[in-house]
Write a structure and sequence with these properties.
The protein is built from 18 helices and 25 strands. By secondary structure, the chain is an alpha/beta fold. The chain is globular and about 80 Å long. The termini are far apart. It binds alpha-D-glucopyranose (GLC).
Length: about 675
């Protein structure tokens, strides 16, 4: 809006006066709306997909939303924008400050395309490694999810752009996603699947929550009065806007049920909130004007918060496709790369010792930034450097680049998955945990010819590797590194960047080992899917069953090495309301600078209820120059030890003895200490 128009609006409508208190402005505007206009605001604007209905008569603008978790999608903005690495790559950085920077950058891009809400972050738990949207989510662990989502949401909203956490709740598979009912007990529902939503709402106050497609215990998430009214609105005290996923209400035609449940806005258009349904329900006293006002107040609250009624001069300026956003995309890709294997320190490659390298594999020059490629998270960037382009650009005329492994000093195999149907894509789960057979054959063939074969995986979800892992000396997990991915991978391969990423989810050896794959009932189910594993998701299950994963949660190597010393818990008896203070010295004992992610887990000794042997309660990523030591002090809230009691329906903290584990991964524990909660 122009300043001139703003001045005119200010004169005409009192709610444009930004000196008035927010709730006052909402009430003033609400009093101007006619009932029919309120009905129209309960669903998206006709033919727009991304906006609410403007009402010029009272100077009410339209609220604009846009995808997605890794940048502003082309299909929702009709523009090319910065494409950040897949969310799972951000998660593998274990770096909340990068998530904060990404949130700030994405918000600036949302503003620059004239929208006000970004439909991100996706904070669903990675329950099965086959989930088609694993690349869009963060982790199998609720603590890591919330530690990364909170700074993202805070950074987005500091730019007066709304963040929308999704998909509420238990949207953990794509198979039958529009109809499947998740059958789940109260304890895992709260302790695992609702947990990140609850903690992000507590700590970051997201302005929007998106209801999921699936049902929970037989009821659609978007019309679920227990999940929306009881949990989200009452128990979590959520005061923001509750929107449906796109077309998630297609099968709903009862406006009273949806309105009473708490659904405020149907997107992209009305099904339950069709005008004639609403008029009928109102006439028959099934809904009242205050039921409608409950929803409209929340929409107006967001509209005021994103600055739709404020002086345009006070609104943060937007910007997109800046060099700083592109460098941030590269940094996230670099920091998210996980070094899975590095026999005889084959990596980093020494540029001076190489005269030729073979670059092979289907992902060596694949471009991922295509229209709706992989689903709603798709972003089309202004450019995208592939590994082949980046390596050629960097070493042209210095290292011979060819495709014959026989002649080459090293052979770089760019393998992995993509967003084609049945791989990492929305609306379809993967069919298998393995690489495509063709890729396995290529790895076997090339590694036989050239012992210096390095596999670089470009994928967005766990892979089984048992039939080729032993044949190659080095493996990098690069996830979907996006527009600067080629440069990021090159920098890690040649040591400009020392890889520091760690797995945000377990890589199982086989699907049968995964907790979600104990039967077809537990995945993919048919009209119902049973979460029989309960709270034992990811490493919680592998630890409980003492199962050996291919690579454990929190695992990642480095070109240098780190020692952990002087681990102390100063006070061993701790009250419920305080913190667990942990101190430890981390030293870089190698010759290259690098970052280490130290992890802290806790486990109850002789717990009264079934509990995982250990659960992540804290972590810290630190950068150390060679031979440098840093003392880390962590203050870990005792609250993070709580579990959800399914009978009492409340969060409890058991008194008594716990073990604290400090380690480099969930399976490489360096120190243990006992402490007591009194
Ligand atoms: C999609 C997704 C959701 C996205 C929305 C708008 O189907 O489930 O994540 O934000 O619809 O594209």
């Amino acid at each position: 809006m122009s300043s001139r128009r703003y001045k005119r609006m200010q004169k005409k409508f009192p709610y444009y006066d930004s000196s008035l208190e927010l709730e006052k402005r909402i009430t003033l505007l609400l009093s101007k709306l006619r009932l029919k206009e309120k009905f129209a605001l309960l669903s998206g604007r006709r033919l727009s997909y991304w906006k609410t209905t403007p009402i010029r008569r009272i100077g009410l603008p339209s609220l604009g939303m846009t995808d997605g978790p890794v940048g502003i999608s082309f299909h929702s903005s009709f523009r090319k924008n910065t494409k950040f690495p897949a969310s799972i790559c951000l998660a593998a950085t274990w770096d909340p400050s990068l998530s904060q920077k990404m949130g700030k950058a994405i918000a600036a891009e949302v503003r620059s395309v004239g929208r006000h809400v970004v439909l991100a972050p996706g904070i669903n738990v990675d329950r099965t490694p086959l989930n088609g949207r694993t690349f869009e989510y963060l982790s199998e662990d609720p603590h890591l999810i919330k530690e990364l989502a909170i700074p993202f949401v805070q950074a987005v909203q500091q730019q007066k752009i709304g963040a929308c956490i999704k998909h509420y709740v238990a949207n953990n598979q794509e198979t039958n996603r529009h109809s499947v009912s998740v059958e789940i007990a109260d304890r895992p529902l709260n302790e695992i699947y609702l947990r990140a939503f609850k903690e992000v709402i507590d700590e970051a106050n997201p302005w929007v929550v998106m209801g999921a497609y699936n049902k929970v215990r037989g009821e659609y998430s978007c019309a679920h009065s227990h999940l929306l009214r009881e949990k989200l609105i009452k128990e979590y005290d959520f005061s923001g806007l509750i929107i449906s996923d796109w077309w998630a209400t297609k099968k709903l035609d009862d406006p009273a049920k949806c309105l009473k449940a708490g659904l405020c806005l149907e997107m992209p258009r009305a099904y339950a909130y069709r005008m004639r349904f609403l008029k009928e329900a109102y006439k028959n006293n099934l809904i009242s004007e205050e039921d409608v006002d409950f929803a409209i107040r929340r929409l107006l609250r967001i509209m005021f918060k994103v600055g739709l009624f404020d002086n345009p001069e006070t609104i943060p300026k937007g910007q997109r496709n800046t060099e700083s956003h592109q460098l941030l995309a590269r940094k996230i890709a670099e920091q998210g790369i996980v070094l899975l294997k590095n026999e005889n320190n084959l990596l980093p490659l020494d540029f001076n010792k190489l005269s030729s390298m073979a670059i092979l594999g289907p992902n060596k020059d694949k471009k991922f930034g295509k229209f709706i490629y992989g689903g709603s998270a798709a972003v089309i960037p202004p450019y995208e450097n592939t590994p082949l382009e980046a390596l050629t650009y960097r070493f042209k005329g210095k290292i011979a680049i060819q495709n014959d492994p026989e002649q080459a000093d090293v052979c770089l195999l760019f393998m992995g998955l993509n967003h084609d149907e049945g791989f990492d894509s929305e609306d379809a789960d993967r069919k298998t945990l393995s690489l495509p057979q063709k890729q396995i054959s290529l790895i076997k063939k090339v590694s036989k010819i050239n012992p210096n074969t390095i596999v670089i995986l470009i994928n967005g979800s766990p892979l089984a590797m048992s039939d080729w892992l032993e044949k190659v000396p080095a493996i990098l997990e690069a996830w979907y590194p996006a527009m600067e991915g080629g440069n990021a991978i090159t920098n890690v391969l040649f040591g400009e960047i020392n890889p520091s990423g760690k797995l945000p989810l377990t890589f199982p050896k086989t699907l049968a080992d995964s907790p979600a794959h104990q039967s077809t009932k537990t995945f993919p189910g048919n009209d119902k899917v049973y979460y029989d594993e309960g709270i034992f998701v990811g490493y919680r299950y592998f630890d409980e069953k003492q199962l050996e994963p291919l690579f454990p949660f929190g695992y990642g190597l480095s070109y240098t090495s780190f020692s952990y010393n002087n681990f102390k818990i100063p006070r061993k008896t701790i009250s419920e309301k305080s913190n667990i203070n942990v101190t430890i010295d981390i030293k870089n004992t190698g010759r290259l600078a690098g970052s280490e992610i130290m992890q802290v887990y806790a486990g109850k000794v002789n717990s009264a209820v079934p509990r995982p042997p250990k659960e992540l309660i804290g972590f810290r990523k630190i950068y150390l120059k060679s031979q440098k030591t840093k003392t880390i002090n962590l203050k870990l809230p005792v609250q993070s030890l709580s579990y959800y009691d399914g009978k009492e329906h409340e969060w409890l903290i058991e008194k008594g003895k716990y073990t604290l584990f400090v380690g480099k991964s969930s399976r490489e524990i360096i120190h243990e200490e006992e402490f007591t909660i009194k």
